[in-house]
Amino acid sequence: MPIHEQNLIRPENIVTNENLEIDGIDVSGHWSTFIESRVVTDYNEAMEDEIAALPGGEYIHRCWQCGSCTNACTVNAVNEDFNPRFWIYLIRMGMESELLRDKDIIWQCVSCNKCTYACPRDVNPEGVMKATAHWLEKKGHTPKSPSMHFDEEFSSQVIATGKIEEGRIIRGFFKRTGQPLIQDWLLEMVKRLLRGLPAKMLIHMGLANFVRPRTRNWDRARRAIEEYVEEKEAQHAEALGLNKPGPGNRGLDVDLPKQAAE
Ligand code: SF4
Ligand code: SF4
Fold first, then answer.
1. d(CA 96, CA 103)
2. What pTM value is reported for the model?
3. Ligand 1 atom at minimum distance from 114 CA
4. What is the pLDDT of residue 6?
5. Residue 253: pLDDT over 50
6. What confidence score (pLDDT) does residue 9 get?
7. Fewer CB near the terminus (10 Å): N or C of the chain?
8. How many angstroms is it from 9 CA to the middle of ligand 1?
9. CB atoms < 10 A from the CB of 63, how many?
């Protein structure tokens, strides 16, 4: 499908000739505005398969480029450069360098899933956006996003203990992202919690900071989940060629849950 949206025409591809005459007619300046042809030589033929190998990207091959996802998209409504249909097109065509031009906004998907409901082909565009953001991180094209840090901290704690303890998750998230523990908004939230929550719950939350709660007999489940996660991580790394040495390949860098269990 042709790329027809006006905002997808790159400014550097627009050429205007100040002095141009064609068949005796002066078409200088604005009248001689041309859009230069793009020449793409660095196809990544594996890109669709790589993104399809990550969770959420499985059905990218079904896309027929109707544009319903972009039309429904919450983020596209405020930033027309955020264009799931166009990125799916680039991925399926293997146009990696074109996709990388938008690498700093792809993670902005807010997971509202409007695109998923609008899609007539069950592509799960929201999942494709997530898979693409993970692909960019795993390939070393973008740094790990705060939401990825949060997901990893959250998952690590669930796997380690079978429980969620909010205070620990916030502390772990701050540590991973280099943020100070004392922050104005956090102090305000704690003050409100102290005023609004029942005393029993506050004591429970306070104790959880010193004695880490665990689900009874969790070890067997933890080992099974760790095995599964490691197996999946290995599959993803292999699909993305992350075990092979190469330029720009920073390898598998996801924290495995065992580390957080310690
Ligand atoms: S889930 Fe993401 S891509 Fe889909 S409509 Fe919402 S913001 Fe747009
Ligand atoms: S709505 Fe579905 S089929 Fe249509 S362009 Fe988006 S992903 Fe492709």
1. 10
2. 0.76
3. 5
4. 63
5. no
6. 77
7. C
8. 23
9. 20
Find, among 77, 62, 75, the residue nearest to 123 by Cα: 62
Which ligand lies nearest to the CA atom of residue 1 in the structure?
2
Closest to 253 (Cα-Cα) out of 155, 140, 153? 140
Distances (CA, A) of 238 to 50, 66, 209, 232: 9, 32, 39, 10
Q: Which domains does the chain have, with CATH numbers?
A: 6-35 (no CATH), 47-138 (1.10.1060.10), 146-261 (no CATH)
Instruction: Determine the residue of 64, 76, 82, 122 to mutate for testing ligand 2's pocket, defined as the one with the most ligand atoms within 8 A of the Cβ atom.
Output: 64
5 pLDDT tier (thresholds 50, 70, 90)? low
- Best residue among 63, 75, 116, 122 to mutate for probing ligand 1's pocket (most ligand atoms within 8 Å of CB) is 75
What letter does residue 204 receive in the DSSP assignment? H
| Ligand in closest contact with the CA of 67 | 2
Distance, in Å, from the CA atom of 250 to the CA atom of 141, rounded to the nearest integer, reads 10
pLDDT of residue 22: 86
- What's the start-to-end Cα distance of the chain, in Å? 51
User: Cβ(207) to ligand 1 under 6 A?
Assistant: no
pLDDT tens digit sequence for 48-92 = 999 999 999 999 999 999 999 999 999 999 999 999 999 999 999
Residue 248 has pLDDT above 70, yes or no: no
